Amino acid sequence: MRKINIKDIPEFTWSSPKGKFGGAGKEVSEALGRKPQSTDLMERHPFDVEITRLAPGQVPYPYHSHSAQWEFYQVISGHGVVRHEGGTEPIAPGDAFIFSPGEAHQFSNNGTEDLVVFVVADNPVGESCHYPDSQKWIVRSPERRLIRSESLDYFDGEE
Fold first, then answer.
1. Most exposed among 10, 44, 70, 85, judged by the fewest C-beta atoms under 10 Å?
2. Nearest to 102 by CA among 75, 134, 128, 123
């Protein structure tokens, strides 16, 4: 058995070049030994777990869909909004929601306190993403590349 306490996992932060996207998180799966670049499921784990924390006004990443990955979200604290193909939906503590492959999604903190969300993804090998707002794709085979006709930066067309 592998065990870790959340308080012992270091928090990492991220921000896009122009600051439109950002947040903080704790990589629970990696603290339990997950090796993200491995294709061996005994090292990769069949799911990925993260705790994401957004300060008021933060959006963690661009609106996107996955080709093969499922994502489950559980709101721990704070308030926000989820953008999805049908519009937007408010989220609050206790709310749980899931996105299947092909369903575009994004969440953000529109509240006055930190939004903390527990995220579980099924972590398929060969996963790719589509970004409807910028009409680009990330193709992982196994490395990560943005494709139109030339190589692009991850945030190209997003901010």
1. 10
2. 128
Q: Take residue 117 and report the two structure tokens written for it.
A: 């969300």
Contact 44, 38 (CB under 8 A): yes
Tell me the sheet residues that pair with 22.
15
Cα–Cα separations (whole angstroms), residue 38 to 35, 124, 127: 6, 11, 13
The one-letter amino acid at 143: E
Residue carrying the six token digits 């490395």? 143
DSSP state of 8: G
Place of tokens 């993260």: 50
Instruction: Determine the residue type at 135.
Output: Q
- The fold of 8-124 is Jelly Rolls (2.60.120)
CB 122 within 8 A of CB 95: no
Give the start-to-end residue ranges of the domains of the chain: 8-124
Is the overall model pTM greater than 0.90, yes or no? no
Nearest in space to 119 (alpha carbons), one of 80, 159, 158: 80
